[in-house]
Amino acid sequence: MFNPAPSSGNVSVAGQVHHPALQHHFDTLEQQKESSSLGMWMFLVTEVLFFGGLFATYVLYRLRFPGVFAEASHHLNVPMGALNTAVLICSSLTMALAIYAAQVNKKKAIVPWLVATILLGATFLVVKAFEYKEKFTHHLVPGPNFDLTQFSPDHARPAEMFFSLYFVMTGVHALHMIIGIGLLSWLVVQSRKGRFDSTYYNPLEMSGLYWHFVDIVWIFLFPLLYLLGYHAR
Amino acid sequence: MSEHQPSIRPYILVFLALMVLTAATVLVAKFDLGAANDIVALVIAVTKATLVVLFFMHVKYSTRLTKLTVIGSVLWLAFLIGVTMMDYASRRMSDEVRGAPYEAPGRGSAGQLGDVGGPTDPVSSPAAADGE
User: Fold this and answer.
1) Degrees (nearest 5) of the Cα angle A37, A51, A44?
2) ipTM value of the model?
3) Does the CB of B71 have a partner CB in chain A at under 8 Å?
4) How many CB atoms lie within 10 A of CB A129?
5) Is B1 on the interface with A (CB under 8 A)?
6) Do B47 and B73 sit in the same domain of this protein?
7) Is position B125 within any domain?
8) How far apart are CA B48 and CA A219, in angstroms?
9) Residue range of the domain that includes B12
C-alpha cells in the first residue's frame, strides 16, 4: 500500500502515459486511493477494537470501584495531561496541513508540516516521560514498590489496578505515537525525493489517518483517566 | 469523492473547536455534577472524535463504503463493551437461577480484586457508597 514505485514501465498497453505511482492492478489513481483508504480504515477498525478491549476493562473496574478510581485519579497530573491533549490536537492540525499542501501541489510545504508534526509528537512523548518519572518517584507504579499507604485501606489494591490500567493504556498509546513518528520520518524522506504531489499522496493520507486515530484515543483517555473526581481535589 | 475542493478553513475551525472543547472538558470537571460529569465528558469526547473523523480524516468526503466501515467500528466497539458488561451484570443472576448461593470469589479482605461480581455485592459497597 505504501509502495509508490511501480514495477512495470510508465506506458500502458494502450500507449497512454502511466502515472508512475499507479500500480498495475488499478485502473485509475482514484480507484487506488479509495482502495488504500478502505484498507487503512479496516486496519483502524481492528485498532478501535484493540483499544476497545482496554476500555471495556476500564469500564468494568470503574463500575466495580467508582470511588477508588476517583481517589487514584487525583494522583495524575491534570495540567500535563491537558497540555498533551493540546499538543496532540496541534499535531493533528499540522498533519492535516501537510496533506493539504500535497493536495494543492505546494510540494515545498509538505516537509515543514511533517517535521512540525514529528516535533509535536516528540513533545507529547517527553511530557509523558516526565509524568511516568513522577509516578516512579511517588511509588505509584504497580508492583512490589507500589505504596499502598497513600490510599485509604479499602482502596489501596484497586487503586493499584487503576494505575495498571493507566500504564497499559497510556503505554500502548505512546507506542502508537512512536510508530507514528517512525511513519512520519519515512514520509519526510519520501517527500524530499519529491514522491508526492496533488495527483498522488496516498502514503501521506494513510499515515494521516493513523496519526489522527491515535489523537482520538488520547481524546478519550484524557478525561477518563485524569479528570475523575477533579472537583474534589 | 474527489469533487471536493480542499480548503484550509475547515481545518482551522475544527482545530479551534477541539481546543475549546478540551478547555470545556477540564472546566466542567471542576464542578460536581454527580453522574452527569461522566456523561458530559463522554459527550465532549465523542464530539471531538467526530470532528476529527469527519474533517481531519476526510470521512465527510469519502466513499459510502468508507463511511460504513467507520460506523461499523463504532457498532462493534459498542458490542464489545456492551456485551461484556451484560455478562458481568448477569453473573449473580445466573448463580441464582442455578440455585447455588452467591459467593464472592475474592480473597476475603475488603477491596480485593478477585471479584467483579457486580456493584451491589457487599465488598464493593463502601467503595460504591463514597461516590464520585
Assistant:
1) 5
2) 0.90
3) no
4) 11
5) yes
6) no
7) no
8) 7
9) 1-62
B104-112: which pairs have CB atoms within 8 A and are 24 or more residues apart? B110/A153, B110/A154, B111/A65, B111/A68, B111/A153, B111/A154, B111/A155, B111/A156, B111/A157, B111/A158, B112/A157
CATH topology of domain A29-232: Four Helix Bundle (Hemerythrin (Met), subunit A) (1.20.120)
Residue B15's closest CA among B53, B70, B56?
Answer: B56
**What does the DSSP 8-state code read for residue A105?**
T
With contact defined as beta carbons under 8 Å apart, do B114 and B105 qualify?
yes
- Cell numbers standing for residue B8: 484550509
Residue B131 is assigned to a structural domain of this protein: no
Selected for mutation to probe chain B from A50, A57, A77, A89 (highest B CB count within 10 Å) is: A89
Q: What is the pLDDT of residues B21-80, one digit of tens each?
A: 999 999 999 999 988 999 999 999 999 999 999 999 999 999 999 999 999 999 999 999
| Parts of chain A with a pLDDT under 70 | 1-16
Q: What is the pLDDT of residues B74-108, one digit of tens each?
A: 999 999 999 999 988 888 777 777 776 555 555 44
